[in-house]
Amino acid sequence: MSWFGRYLRSSIGAKHAMAVTGLLLLLFAIVHMLGHFQMFGGQDMYNKYAHFLQNLWEVKWPVRAGLIALTVIHIVLAIGLVAKNRAARPVSYAVYRPVMSSATGRAMAFTGLAVFAFLAFHILHFTVGMVQADYFHTLDPKGRYDAYSMFVRGFQNPAIYGVYLAGMVLLAMHLGHGASSWFQSLGWRHPKYPIDRIGTAVSVFLFVGYMIPPTAVLVGIIKLPGA
User: How do the residues of the chain divide into helix, strand and coil, expressed in percent and rounded to 5?
Assistant: First the structure.
């Protein structure tokens, strides 16, 4: 086995790799979130943005493949670390009183699985079109896929909005705690810097940023063309 393979099999190496893959996934989440704010520019602006991304084949498919690879690596490493932690203590505590870890930190494995399920739903909804199929790949007046109207139709449904609200709570919690843990895993944590606050800031930033456009749809600020 190569030194890199041994490194990834070690707890430290796995944590480092999880930190790097998590950071890259966070950066994508931020870019993806900012793109949705073009909904406030109207149908033409958002559909122009979506059309540009869909036709940028040289970037779209490598990015999708990269995201799948990062997610798989992140999940596999997380499962491995959980298994190692359980193997290190096969007998549970008689009385468990955590001192340093937070409830969010202890629930990372569960929130991670829930986030994975939410992302699967999101792909089925907006990428595959298996949710609200009647609004998938309809065309706008310029002959482009009408991603704007699909977004509006989606979040006009309170049940769909509720799924995304719950999913974003979990995603924000997971990535927010991860943002704090990454600094520690990469050896960048220092008592002088409020690293823990970064996690809270990331959580709030992602949750608010992702939920502003859907909420604007639900309350009628963003509407269908002509409505």
Answer: 75, 0, 25
Q: How far apart are CA 22 and CA 62, in angstroms?
A: 18
Tally of domains in the chain: 1
Read off the tokens for 139.
Answer: 């065309």
The CB-based long-range contact list for 82-88 (8 Å cut-off, 24+ gap) reads: 82/109, 84/11
Q: Each residue of 173-209: pLDDT tens digit? A: 888 776 666 666 656 555 666 666 777 888 899 999 9
pLDDT at 184: 64
Distance (Å, whole) CA 53 – CA 122: 17
CA dist., res. 140 & res. 217, Å (int): 18
37 is a domain residue: yes
Q: Is residue 106 part of a domain?
A: yes
CATH at residue 169: 1.20.1300.10
